[in-house]
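Ops channel
N.P.: pipeline sanity check, posting one input/output pair.
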């Protein structure tokens, strides 16, 4: 069953995908991978996102033929994989994103419309891919399902945000605790083949977000409040009082200027993991 958090996350991704597509011509739903050759600027985000997709795809081992793309978003990564000759199925719990992915993939891919936790299929794959979707799925189930849906000798490829063990409240959300992931993955028949830390290359996304929050969202909120003060002064006073806790929380979370690349590097760790399912087990 969908929880309130699941619903608001899906809604957030849906809004992100609509705005990103309309204002910035973004096709992907993941972070950008910033290397020195692209200036960190919001208008270059689509290039950095493309670099991210290429980076992840470049770590698919030789011999892989069939892929399960878990949390396929708009289907752009799956499209690239299909064009490279892989057979790809997808999982998408969001009807909105599934519709966008279906448009792009047509009949060349089967999209399971469900949470990965609930996926039922007799299909087995050479590689299970989590392209910035691992953080949304309970780890135990994400790993046990991947074990189940992988062929013997298959691969698990995860590229996503994890949380560092830092005392105090993280000012940036998202991502499973890295230490908990290490503790859990030990219990599965997965052997680590490759591990890369790309925190440095992904941190600039937060500076862009912070910039947009400070220079677009905050001034828009201020303008809206001024309008309400002018037209509905007493109603605004009441709403401010009634929802003061929520307003303070939202402000603390999004508008206090803490969502920076520097804090991302302090609290988060962006990792690529490639595991092989051991044949002996
Ligand atoms: C940040 S987007 C990444 C999308 C895509 N992989 C990409 O790289 O552009 C996260 C994706 O995970 C999906 N997702 C969230 N919770 C999920 C779950 N429990 N099972 C499967 N997919 C999930 C969302 O619908 C969304 O497509």
């Amino acid at each position: 069953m969908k929880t309130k958090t699941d619903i608001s996350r899906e809604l957030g991704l849906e809004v992100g995908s609509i705005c990103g597509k309309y204002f910035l011509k973004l096709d992907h739903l993941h972070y950008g991978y910033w290397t020195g050759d692209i200036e960190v600027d919001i208008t270059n985000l689509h290039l950095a996102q493309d670099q991210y997709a290429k980076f992840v795809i470049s770590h698919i081992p030789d011999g892989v033929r069939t892929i399960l793309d878990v949390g396929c978003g708009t289907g752009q990564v799956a499209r690239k994989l299909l064009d490279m000759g892989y057979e790809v199925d997808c999982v998408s719990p969001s009807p909105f994103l599934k519709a966008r992915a279906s448009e792009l993939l047509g009949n060349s891919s089967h999209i399971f419309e469900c949470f990965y936790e609930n996926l039922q299929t007799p299909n087995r794959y050479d590689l299970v891919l989590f392209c910035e979707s691992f953080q949304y799925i309970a780890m135990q189930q994400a790993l046990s399902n991947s074990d189940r849906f992988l062929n013997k000798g298959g691969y698990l490829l995860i590229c996503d945000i994890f949380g560092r063990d830092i005392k105090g409240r993280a000012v940036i959300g998202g991502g499973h605790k890295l230490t908990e992931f290490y503790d859990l993955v030990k219990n599965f028949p997965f052997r680590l083949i490759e591990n890369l830390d790309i925190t440095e290359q992904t941190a600039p996304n937060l500076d862009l977000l912070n910039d947009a929050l400070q220079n677009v969202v905050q001034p828009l909120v201020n303008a809206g409040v001024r309008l309400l003060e002018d037209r509905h002064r007493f109603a605004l006073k009441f709403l401010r009082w009634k929802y003061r806790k929520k307003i303070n929380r939202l402000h603390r979370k999004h508008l206090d200027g803490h969502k920076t690349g520097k804090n991302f590097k302090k609290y988060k760790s962006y990792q690529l993991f490639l595991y092989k399912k051991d044949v002996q087990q």
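N.P.: looks fine end to end. The mean pLDDT is 91.
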